[in-house]
Write a structure and sequence with these properties.
Low-confidence stretches of chain A: none
Largest interface: A-B, 21 and 24 residues
Structural class of chain B: mainly beta
Helix content of chain B: under 10%
Number of strands of chain B: 11
Mean pLDDT of chain B: 92
Largest sheet of chain B: 7 strands, mixed
Structural class of chain A: mainly beta
Oligomer: heterodimer
Strand content of chain B: over 45%
Strand content of chain A: over 45%
Number of strands of chain A: 11
Number of helices of chain B: 0
Distance between the termini of chain A: 41 Å
Mean pLDDT of chain A: 91
Largest sheet of chain A: 6 strands, mixed
Low-confidence stretches of chain B: none
Shape of chain A: globular
Radius of gyration of chain B: 13 Å
Order of helices and strands of chain B: EEEEEEEEEEE
Amino acid sequence: SQKIEQNSEALNIQEGKTATLTCNYTNYSPAYLQWYRQDPGRGPVFLLLIRENEKEKRKERLKVTFDTTLKQSLFHITASQPADSATYLCALEDTGGFKTIFGAGTRLFVKA
Amino acid sequence: ETGVTQTPRHLVMGMTNKKSLKCEQHLGHNAMYWYKQSAKKPLELMFVYSLEERVENNSVPSRFSPECPNSSHLFLHLHTLQPEDSALYLCASSQELNNEQFFGPGTRLTVL
């Protein structure tokens, strides 16, 4: 089955800078990859979905890339704000297509 | 508000108790999911229902028993749990299997 690797160390950046988070997977390239945001004690919130035939997708200050050769997705937040501080989860389909598996997430702290 | 509600939000139970978690989605979705989230670990998929039929049972112990009486409601019946079952239990729904998922706020379960 798929294995997802996200940087377990927290990412600390200054307000206004661009935050870049990485998601690597180990097996076959999935048909799509998703990113979610999770705040402490709450359920994840869907942010973006990118398909295997899309190199890049944008939504407001968010940008996601999907490189099937590197087996990697990058998630960018431009002009970051303290309100962007949260844990960001990468998710993709597992073998058989019935389920989505999630990475452990990367905690982002944006300092004012 | 994501359109997915869960009750109760917090639950403390002894190992001999029987309790149930309830999830309701108001989005007209066809698929519903139960996840377990323990501290510092990725979301673990427990059960998946599509059009009220269970399509995935992810090697979950029998002390957890799901029920999906209709496409809007999902239950997780709990009995003779262990302290290691203490976690945040999240319900989610999606329009179809493997579309973006909408999560409820979760039930924080503590087993004494």
